[in-house]
Specification:
842 residues, alpha/beta, six-stranded mixed beta sheet, 15% strand
């Protein structure tokens, strides 16, 4: 089966409340048969945030393929195109980094580890002596292992004492964490993937699930194609596969103007009040702030919402009625909200809908504020994004004291005098030179950060010493002072946690190439070189192996919302991943949070005291305690305000960026997969039919897209984006595989985006920028955009996207995978699960 052309594979429809049937997907290197595989090594896929259980095929010391794990709770054996074709093939690339590099006379030259780390330690010690710990900044990723994040967090917070630590999760999921904290007191997904099996309706807010989480979309399709499908409601300015499914199931597609999400959410919320669909008794017992919210949303009638958003007032009413009359709704949220105007306020508004209906903590009634990366949750849990480990509160002295005692350091060493420094500010400090050492791990900000020209200038200057550790010489690594070769997935051991809190253990399958080292070993080498010590004079970092690091983290998490105390490497070697919290009380993990209606808002337990959603102003501890939340959730609202940059005479269109199904982030891995790169080999831009007609642009024409900050020249796809909007995929930088030639024209989507961010989550706005489009030349063929996705052409003879004969996927469905069952779970019939599923196992 060609899983490039058929992204989601064959359907296995099943009735509401029954187990999702298993289907084992696999793909092996050309010329390798299953009998040739010497061993299969357990892991989980790292090319989206779904966290699908899988096994790595090993032959002759190389990774040669992958297959799904039928018993895993996350994917029931399925894998998506990125997992099948891109999760492992990059490891065998000839251009892997295999030795450290240092800059000499303006050029990067190979050296040994002692020289490279010695240079880093020398600069680090000098800066500490001259300027103190605020001279150090760390910018990491959402793709390392839990053990590596925790080690980095301890180095930064207890070894150096710097608050300047964040991850590229700031670009994709910071709003998810911020919204959870504002509504429920701490981070942590309330819902579960298993809610798909129980819900009456699914609302996807700015979430193109068919492309960003392909296996989760398979799960949705297997319900919507059953005889009793849930209704689908899509909020997206493009006509995605979600929008098509909404129309098919009797749902609604709401396509708001870019930047108006908050007005739409206020309109939907008002309709719940107006329709009498609020569970007043539940709201009174379990929430705070309902009257203030009612007053905030009152002006947003369906007609006013339609005027602001450019949607149909009747569609607003229909969507609200589906939410109001459904017994169980699952909502998912992603970048269409997170990276757009009023991000946190709009994401919190999704929580408000569920809280007003009392739909949280029970099967089918949940929220998934999705992540974009496989280990983004671990970045947040372990404190590598700047937060305190274990979802502790920077403003709570008792929480800081807990960590100081755990690490055996003076609590004044741990920087807690102000909120942690977010990535946008860290790069500003690096630009000014106050951050004199910036350490970048497993991410490529030259391509992924907004306003690309500014990032190139910062990293290419001499005001900041830059360290990059990565698999390849990326666009960012090319500008570094020291480059450290890292081991990747399958070349090291560690744990990671997906969107719905499921923890997997990924075992080392093969050796890394040359002198490449695991990120854990690199951080330990730096700690040794700096000789970080605790109060007793013993080494601060007391672990040497991944398992020892995991055990240290387990103790750090004990008693906190993300409690791993019941987990171990041995336990994670079982048939499936396990969702936290996993404790003595819940030894098999916890499928859903807040089932008892008690939230993590107690002043002595919460992770934050909250913010004003409109301004970002902080709520003081005294103000928060005066509200006496006592385990009640916060209903919080905000009025709609226009975006920072709106279309005008000079720049009449709105520019928005996003993803395509065949690539992950800046293509460091997926661009090295022949199948994936062939499916989407070059950048493009999408225009609506009316805009293209007005501008005289046809399919495949070369166009120049300009904003006040920069420009790109790419080919045009005449597609299904709403009129007035322009869409560009953000994956493409300057690098390309050898076999793909480019003409040198700028194509990096973030040349045009703004250095503007949400006041609460500090997540940049990639979705709202004014632009103009002009034709540069006639096309010599169609745009390189896929035809299988939301980027499909609006018409014309464009050849379909295909992958070729080497795609090999088995797809034999079984009625019920052999899951370990909790004694409390009853099976009424083969394949049917009881109303309350076994935690983490249904």
């Amino acid at each position: 089966m060609d899983r490039i052309a058929d992204i989601w594979g064959p359907r296995t429809p099943h009735a509401k409340g029954t187990v999702w049937p298993a289907r084992v997907d696999r793909h092996l290197e050309e010329g390798v048969a299953e009998d040739d595989v010497e061993r299969w090594v357990r892991s989980a896929c790292v090319l989206c945030s779904n966290g699908c259980g899988c096994e790595i095929a090993v032959k002759d010391g190389r990774m040669v393929g992958v297959r799904g794990v039928a018993t895993d709770v996350v994917n029931h054996g399925r894998l998506g195109p990125k997992g099948l074709y891109g999760s492992w093939s990059w490891a065998n690339s000839a251009d892997r980094l295999t030795r450290p590099l240092v800059r000499e006379n303006g050029r990067l030259t190979e050296t040994d580890w002692e020289t490279a780390m010695g240079r880093i330690a020398e600069v680090s010690r000098r800066l500490l002596a001259e300027k103190g710990p605020l001279s150090h900044g760390f910018y990491t990723t959402g793709q390392l292992f839990l053990e590596e994040y925790y080690t980095l967090a301890v180095i930064g917070k207890a070894g150096l004492g710097t608050p300047h630590m964040d991850g590229n999760t700031r670009l994709c999921t910071a709003t998810s964490a911020a919204a959870f904290k504002e509504s429920f007191g701490t981070d942590g997904q309330p819902g579960s993937y298993t809610d798909i099996e129980h819900c009456d309706a699914i609302f996807l807010f700015g979430h193109n699930m068919p492309e960003t989480q392909t296996v989760l979309w398979m799960r949705v399709l297997d319900r919507t194609r059953a005889d009793d499908p849930p209704k689908v409601v899509c909020v997206d300015p493009r006509r995605t596969k979600v929008a098509e499914e909404a129309e098919r199931t009797g749902g609604v597609h709401l396509a708001p103007r870019v930047g108006t999400n908050m007005a739409l959410m206020n309109g939907l919320t008002r309709e719940l009040f107006a329709g009498g669909w609020v569970d007043e008794e539940w709201v009174g017992r379990h929430t705070l702030g309902v009257e203030e919210l009612r007053e905030t949303v009152e002006p947003y009638t369906p007609e006013e919402t339609a005027r602001i958003c450019g949607v149909d007032a009747g569609d607003v009413r229909r969507a609200a009625r589906i939410f109001g009359e459904s017994e169980r709704v699952l909502s998912t949220v992603l970048q269409g909200f997170y990276q757009s105007h009023q991000a946190t306020a709009a994401a919190v508004a999704v929580h408000n809908l569920h809280l007003l209906r009392g739909m949280i903590g029970r099967p089918g009634a949940g929220v998934l504020q999705m992540n974009g990366q496989p280990t983004a949750q671990n970045t947040r849990e372990c404190g590598a994004d700047g937060d305190l480990p274990g979802f502790r509160n920077w403003s709570n002295p008792a929480h800081v004291r807990e960590l100081a005692e755990l690490w055996n350091v003076d609590e004044l060493t741990i920087p807690h005098w102000a909120p942690p420094t977010h990535a946008m500010q860290i790069f500003r400090y690096a630009e000014q030179g106050s951050v004199g050492l910036l350490w970048i791990s497993a991410t490529n900000p030259v391509v992924s950060m907004p306003e690309s020209s500014r990032i190139r200038k910062i990293l290419g200057g001499d005001q900041c010493f830059t360290v990059v550790q990565d698999l390849f010489l990326t666009e960012t690594a090319e500008l570094a002072d020291v480059v450290l070769p890292a081991a990747g997935w399958g070349e090291k051991t560690g744990c990671y946690t997906n969107v719905n809190r499921t923890v997997h253990l990924s075992e080392k399958a093969v050796e890394p190439p040359g002198e490449a080292r695991s990120d854990l070993d690199i951080f330990l080498m730096y700690a040794d070189a700096m000789d970080f010590r605790d109060r007793d004079g013993t080494p601060l970092i007391k672990w040497r192996t991944p398992e020892e690091a995991f055990d240290a983290w387990r103790e750090c998490s004990r008693g906190r919302p993300c409690d791993y105390s019941g987990l171990s490497y041995d336990k994670l070697r079982g048939p499936t991943g396990i969702p936290w919290p996993c404790t003595e009380e819940h030894p098999e993990g916890t499928d859903r949070l807040y089932a008892d209606g008690v939230f993590n808002t107690d002043p002595e337990y919460c992770e934050t005291y909250g913010h004003d959603l409109l301004t970002g102003g902080t709520v003081t501890p005294q103000e928060y305690r005066a509200k006496a939340p006592a385990g009640r959730a916060h209903l919080k609202g905000a009025a709609y305000v226009p975006p920072h940059e709106e279309p005008g005479e000079e720049y009449p269109l709105l520019y928005t960026t996003g993803r395509t199904v065949y690539h992950f982030h800046t293509r460091t891995k997926t661009g090295r997969s022949r199948e994936l790169n062939r499916a989407a080999p070059d950048a493009w831009v999408e225009l609506s039919v009316p805009d293209a007609r007005r501008l005289g642009i046809a399919e495949g024409d070369r166009v120049r897209v300009e904003s006040p900050r920069g420009a790109i020249e790419v080919r045009a796809r005449i597609g299904h984006v709403r009129e007035g909007a322009v869409f560009a995929p953000f994956h493409y930088g300057r690098w390309d595989p050898d076999e793909v030639a480019t003409d040198g024209a700028p194509r990096q989507a973030n040349e045009l985006t703004m250095t503007i961010w949400d006041p609460v989550s500090k997540q940049p706005y990639f979705k709202t920028a004014a632009c103009r489009v002009v034709k540069v030349a006639d096309g010599d063929g169609p745009a390189p955009a896929p035809t299988t996705t939301a980027s499909a052409p609006a018409g014309g003879s464009v050849p379909p996207t295909r992958g070729g004969p080497e795609a090999d996927t088995s797809a034999e469905p079984t009625a019920t995978p052999d899951y370990p069952c909790d004694p409390a779970v009853t099976h009424e019939a083969p394949g049917h699960i009881a109303e309350v599923a076994a935690p983490g196992r249904s």
